[in-house]
């Protein structure tokens, strides 16, 4: 979750939505994202809305404490119930992210999930995920999460190489994420993901291959691989500017992506989104798919974003300000925007083109259709889906996905 919030119109103090936001809501899935804004240390590449204990000291008082965070977040879940009224939809997915959710006690995460269950109910086949730092869990912790209703877990592995982890300021030791996969399986988790980052300064092709081999060998059913983006204002950006570490160029990122596709495909994984591979249909992250397909979700927590029926809003960033708003009976919303039909069309193209199934050609305007024809002739779109009325990326198209989507929405 990026640390910089957009501009927007004010959110009503009671958090109420325009009546149109709930029109035909029964036809759309409902999801919850629960943001935990705490980290033990700040990674040098991270631009997310997270806070260490040092950063919070004296700036939020007891309201910003990890100790009572689960209860504070439950207050926002209850606010969501009031705002959504008699909305009958059970929650299809819950995703606890951060930050480092597993800095909280396992019982706190279970209590946060319990608040969603109590207020809305969970679908019988609900997907319930938490992110986890490999060094912050053990078998007992994972067993408590599983017993409390979590059935999917995502471990931040990033790399199998110690020197790469050091550049990223990651504190876990090589091999620990792989051990976590085994511990999660033993605890009964149905689905396990490993998150990887490629393109770290100082990483070689062999380093990246070793990370992929280690992740596959650990036995997850899902792997995410993201190119490192150096965000302005981060410690890593400052180190690169000072010449302490080199910047990785786009050609290297492309080579690493091809290595990932080759390695993961050989191991039986298939891509279903540009940065995500799974060993089975059931292993796909449904929560993220709901984002990519424009479903309704409520994001609870500091800086969390939400979307319901074409209304997007975001919460205040700081944990102290967030907790204070809820304690005063106010929505913690900092701003919102009402998406036009054109906004929503463009977002569908932007997001759905990244999916294996692609985007319906009927969503494209005349210039976009013409661009799609050129992309097809240039080998960026698959011929079969195109003939069936969809723009779906080839492997080469995935490498140039940002450029392709720009052409299709213009």
Describe the protein's architecture and organization.
The protein is α/β, with parallel strands linked by helices and 410 residues long. It is 39% helix and 19% strand. The chain has 16 helices and 14 strands. It has helices at 53-56, 69-84, 106-120, 139-147, 162-167, 176-187, 205-218, 235-241, 250-266, 286-292, 319-327, 341-352, 366-377, 383-387, 395-399, 401-409; strands at residues 30-36, 91-98, 122-132, 152-158, 191-198, 222-227, 270-273, 276-278, 296-300, 305-308, 311-315, 333-338, 359-360, 390-391. The strands form three sheets. A nine-stranded mixed β-sheet has the order 7-8-6-5-4-3-2-1-9, with helices on both faces. It has a three-stranded antiparallel β-sheet with strand order 10-11-12, with no helix packed on it. Helix 2 runs parallel beside helix 3 (106-120) and helix 13 packs antiparallel against helix 16 (401-409). The model has no long low-confidence stretch (mean pLDDT 92).
Percentage beta strand: 15-25%
Number of helices: 16
pLDDT < 50 runs, ≥5 residues: none
Terminus-to-terminus distance? 27 Å
Helix content: 25-40%
Provide the residue-averaged pLDDT. 92
Computed over alpha carbons, the radius of gyration is: 21 Å
SSE ordering: EHHEHEHEHHEHEHHEEHEEEHEHEHHEHH
How would you sum up the major sheet? 9 strands, mixed
> How many β-strand stretches?
14
The largest sheet has its strands arranged as 7-8-6-5-4-3-2-1-9
Secondary structure class reads alpha/beta
Overall 3D shape: globular
